[in-house]
Records
---
Amino acid sequence: MFAEIFSILYQFADVFAFLILAAAGLAIIFGMMGIINMAHGEFITCGIYVTVICVQQGMPLPLAQAIGALSAGLVGIALERTIIRHLYHRPLDSILATWGISLMVTQGMLLLLGSSWRGIGTPLGSFQVGDYTFSTYRLVLFGAAIGVLAGLYLVFMRTGYGIMARATMQNAEMAQALGVRTQHMYAASFGMGAALAGLCGALYAPTMTLIPTMGITFIIESFVTVVVGGANVLLGTAPAGILLAVVRTALNAWYGQIAGQIGLLIAVIVVIRLLPEGVSGWLSRRER
Amino acid sequence: MRGFFGSLNGPQTLGNGRSFWTCFAAALVVALVYPGFSDPYSVGNVAYLLIFTLMALGLSLMWGYTGMFSFGQTAFFGVAGYSYGVLAINLDASGAMTLFCLLGAIAVAALFAALLGYFLIWGRVSGVFFGIVTFATTLALAAFFGQTAGPEWAIGTARFNGFNGMIGMPPLMLPWVGEEDIVLEGNALYYFVLALVLAIYLGLRALVNSRFGNVLVSIREDPLRAELLGYDVRKYQLASFVIGSSLAALSGVLYTAWGQFIPPASMGLPAAAMPIIWVAFSGRQDLTATLAGTFLLLLAFQTITVYSQQYALILMGFVLLVTVLLVPAGFIIGIGRLLAGFAGRDRAGTRQDVPA
């Protein structure tokens, strides 16, 4: 009995970690600038490839993963400085621009890197509970998701950057009038979002086969989590992750993977009908 | 006759003057005599390209005229394609029956659009989120149909075949008085698609210049104001969404019947990005610009695809990026407005350029 319960919890943790890690970077960029970054999947892909290349060069996995996340963040800052900053007053056009970039990057990588690479294998082995075996690395991923949520909370609630970032989120013009360099905030936030996307890729890199279009594996989950979570990352992303993970785990268990994915989408459409501003909009309205 | 032409012209379309309609008539004549001067392969190919302009026109109506950012045209394209396959294979359709299957498949997709539209529009989903949810819908459908490889995934005798796509549906056929049914392929298909594009283009022109169309544009400009003036904005948005999505469905059925084949990739990436690129490049706020620009871009894309699909897609991404950064309203519409400015008598271009 204990083994069954553990198995369900384990699967829930697995789905939850995937949703949170895939969505965190997208959620920060959306919450801060109101931009949906369609090239999100490509930042994840960047994290994956850099990690795998570093490991193949003989680096230890954690260091390779840090470099993967960092390089995605740097690419993000470069992109923000060159293109995204021209589009802050046109959120819909920023979707189109990032989509154009996504298309170019994916196809360019297909040309440069070929269709598939060998993965690096999942580390840490497995453990047994009752009759079931579980991958230890999946628990590390769950820990990382919790760590990302906690880290975001600390950064936004306890640091000077966090206060200025929240001020910019609430009212960018007023923040600027009070001396916050909103342009720097935007660049930093975009870089942080990109780095978190890279981190997601870096963490999942050992678990998958590498193809240049693999960003798409993450994209549906990250979009729906952000839509359900709403504009406030701190308030919305975690509850959205829990809600969607419950739906998905249940459907996966009873009807299989594809029902889980379709169910996720139906859940989003129902939630958006009931709570148009997402979970965070609903929560912050209740507080008032 | 005068009343009919009057209904085609108005403030919501570029090109209302005599010079425009003269050019239009000339283009139509060229299109009509084209098969006489070309080889069967090219004619079939142009028909294939024209098929996709229909879904672009639908997107122009939703996005350019109503301000609804739908990324899900390919979802309805695919749903209608598969529905046509299921209907036509199970009914073993031939003759006029294939046309009923076409209508039935469009009805299925329209119903799906109405359902999705109800949840999104009545949930007051707008702007960015509207795009994201419709986009996620088409990706999820692509993933769903991609895993239907097993024999248990079938409706009646129509198997979905997973990633490889559904095959074996009959082509469209047109019953002819006293003769055998005309199978719509080659020149026959070309004229059939051309007639459809012409009818839908003119129909949409009349629609957007009608009272209904003016309300759509007012919703694009300011939904709140439109509502305060007493219009139930949601009903107009839903109507526009269903019409636009049904045009994608029509494209889907024609495509499926043309190649007797519909794959899940038609709903996934990068296919889902294509309608957006055509319409953004052309100029979403005008039907003529959308029609002309989409056709030109498709032609260019196909020409380059022969050499390398990757290069063609990179170029498409680049086109989208450049359009957004340099000419957010679109390239072809810009040229159209320039010409309208030269002509002087055309009263077009009086609208405001609000990025929608």
Note: The radius of gyration of chain A is 19 Å.
---
Amino acid sequence: MARRQPFRLAEGGAIDRRREVHFTFNGRRYKGHPGDTLASALLANGVHFIGRSFKYHRPRGIVAAGAEEPNALVQLGTGVRTEPNIRATEIALYDGLVAASQNVWPSLHFDAAALNQVFAGLFPAGFYYKTFMWPASQWPRYEWLIRRIAGLGQAPPGRDPDRYEKMHGHADLLIVGGGVAGLAAARAAAATGARIILAEEGADFGGQTLADGDQRIDGLPAADWVAATVAQLEAAPEVTLLRRTQVTAYHDHNYLTAVERVTDHLAGPPAHLPRQRLWKMRARQVVLATGAIERPLVFADNDRPGVMLAGAVRAYIRRHAVLPGREVVIFTNNDDAYRTALAVDDAGAKVAAIVDARPSPAGPLVAAARARGLPIHAGHVVVETRGRARVKGCAIMKLAADGQSVNGVARPINCDCIAMSGGWTPSVHLFSQSRGTLDWDADLAAFVPGTSRAEESSAGAAAGVFDLAEIAKQAARVGIERARASGHKGRPPAAPKAEASAEAPLMAIWQVPTSRRRAKRFVDFQNDVTAADIALAAREGYQSVEHVKRYTTTGMGTDQGRTSNVNALALLAAARDAEIPAVGTTTFRPPLAPVPIGAYAGRAVGPLFEPVRTTPMDAWQRAHGAAFEHVGQWMRAWYYPRAGETMAQAVARECRAARNTVGLLDASTLGKIDVKGPDAAEFLNRVYTNNWLKLPVGRARYGLMLGDDGMVKDDGVTARLAENHFHMTTTTGGAAAVLDWLEEWLQTEWPDLRVYLTSVTEQWAVASICGPKARDVLARLTDDIDLSPEALPHMAVTAGTVAGLPARVFRVSFTGELSFEINVPSRHGPALWTALMAAGAAFDITPYGTETMHVLRAEKGFIIVGQETDGSVSPNDLGMDWIVSKTKADFIGKRGLARADLARGGRKQLVGLLASDPAVVLPEGAQIVEAVTPQPPMAMIGHVTSSYHSVTCGRSIALALVADGRARIGETVSLPLADKTLTAEVTAPQFFDPEGARLDG
Amino acid sequence: MLLIPCPWCGPRDESEFQYGGEAHKKRPADPAAADDRAWGQYLYHGHNPKGLYLERWRHAAGCRRWFNVARDTVSHEIVEVYAAGDLPRDAAARAVHAANWRRAEEDG
């Protein structure tokens, strides 16, 4: 049975009192209303104690009312939908919501690690680097302990079941932030007809003004003006309003990304909606109306649940009709917090004290509080707090004139809430990401936007403008300026008018003196960093703010120091006896707030992660039980196991068929480039190492492509189909890169060559029929092609009809056997394949996969680029000098080959390796040494590049790159592995038919 | 993500493009006559200025054309795009072209 809500006000607030929403926190059921956040609903139920702190496991409560919340991080949801580190202040309440504390073990109220508080001396600044470093052997234990204690939530146990989408937004003007400033800017800019996107991170527009509540704009109560303006913008055709959309990154050329939480606030989201949308926006102009964040005061035990930011306290009262406390102490150094005192008083709660560090506060807000008889303690500060799971009281003392100490006697005050305000910090994170430089504003005691580097302006509090009348005026001006800069004219409406409210300046007080020596004054609640930690870091010699951040961890974590940064900088400046602007700020990096990985992934998960390319014969191969392997994006048939066969048995059978009778390989994935033009032959002559000018029509040639450094880049067979028409083949994986490479030369180095390149990889299906019976099989399927060795010798090409299909037939061989590569238009691939299988049935034609292809080519010592080469291998290293022209004046790589480094001794050369034990297949990648020593290091002389069991040779074979390998033929080398050492004999890199006697079948 | 104005297709996201490094790098007309130093300068040495830089881009996911871009490496401002083989028109970009150490090598 859920309880009633004891801290809910009877009236006011933007909540729906008629409906109740049930939710569960730490296993207990509570009630709230639509319009609540999890934080406001917990406060309505009197729950302040939400979790425990990172290092000391001190009780912590809700501090803020928005995205800056450092403490109230919860584990939201259960099962695969659970998500850690979610700010309770940003979770819109829905029926059935389940959340739990994190960083507690075993439970919130009995927390074993709370003992850390007793041993607090163990956790100074840099404790990770000090406490747990010795002895090093104990690190695994420390790590276990740290991980257990640090907690920080649980990752979901399974796959994310939700759907995420990506949207591209294009705008003349992107406005970030939907407070009064953002709305005023949008209203002004919309009048020009500019296309506008206005992104607000919360569910409602209006920003801080909704919490302040007492102001009027254009004669209307602020909330009414906000509603009217939103309605007006919603009706404008070129304006897009995005709610629950947090802009998290500001990149180059006004490219901003945002996360829209589409259904996170719904109990039962409709199936057609994604959970979140990642917006990728390009805007001509940007207005940053990101508001400001209130700073905590750094006083003794300022982290007890119930100690909150003053602006948050009145936001809960005004927006959610929730009283954060019944006896509230306001602790401030500025006028703005008096608004909270008035709000508390309006709500019928007791303002126990207004403790103002300034000796003589004045101004209209102060006067208003005084007029109501609220107790103001000028020139006083809070020196201690009492209570454990909830603040119960505090003590105040008079601040000495120097601001560094207190005097007199401590006066106790009972309270259940302390509303603190150290002033407001403009939210300059996105501005800073846009590479704008920050200026220090001494009056605000904060950094404000200085010089812009992008096409943007800041508006409102983000620009350091805090008076509502000024905000409305300045934001409208910025809006119209930016709209005009985006190329739109048009007369803007008059700027909204609000009443000015004079505020006296704040008095910066970065560290409130305390009477209690052991009290902790927290700067960064999320990372448990105290003022003493920062002083210690400075004493230990840490000068740079970036180093202090990493050493103390201040400003890290999910809130990235939104509430703590300025206080930390000021304390560091004081410790270094420097000015704050001289200390500078840490770098603001995207994303501004955590973004679920799912949002970045969008739909590109599972089978949609990457495109899969299949050949025309794919369906036949699947139907016949082929095992597949990935080759780049291609799925290629790897081997075709028969019932009960292992991979090794299947490959052995396929190899025997290809060598003894006939085999059939799907070679459709070969890269194919159509090369046309009057200068095509000259072009090939420049990109291949060998000679192409005299290649007759109807003949093909193997070619090796080098980079200009002389290293092997790709290889393949290219055929001359006509005088000015060539069919080039490349490696499967290199097809796109080779086309790009050739295009680059044509476009940038040789624009005078008349050559046209077209990728035709997917236009042709290729079946490679191989083996002594290949000609017999093919002869059954063609009557217009003379297959005799005289008419169609090795490396000849012809066109004709195969199985009734128009075909190009290439007599090329990657196995050393008689082979024909039959190319037909892709759509005919399945017909060709089935016809070949039928025609070959009499010869027991055997389809074979890529594994058998690899074994057969390795037996012949044919290289595979990318396996025998790695970008540092020259033709000579491969023993392929025969293909490098000595007579051509130039080709790509010729000059590179002339470098002294390619002629030196000791280069790795391609050799064969025969393991001493013929049954052992050497592991590919295994390192080769000359001599094994008991301990590393050993001089490494090479590595295994390809290694297989060869049924043809009746033993294992391997190819390897070995230093001076050709001179080592006959020597024995060693291959030390993790558990044993293998030995092998160096041989020539051909294991079968080295003289090529089998090519004609 | 840069917004790159392809001379043929208009402004497109950087993710559609392939980067090609320094522009106006001349392959020695007679590589065989180039000494090791000159060949090394061509092959391995780059110009890496802070500020305006003349570089090559290819609209890989579009028209597949190579072109040149004058871009500030600090601010990422794109001052000019122009065809491969042309010189920039912008005065500052021309000055950067002239000041590149390769020009002295080419003359010498």
Note: The first strand of chain A starts at residue 21 and ends at 25.
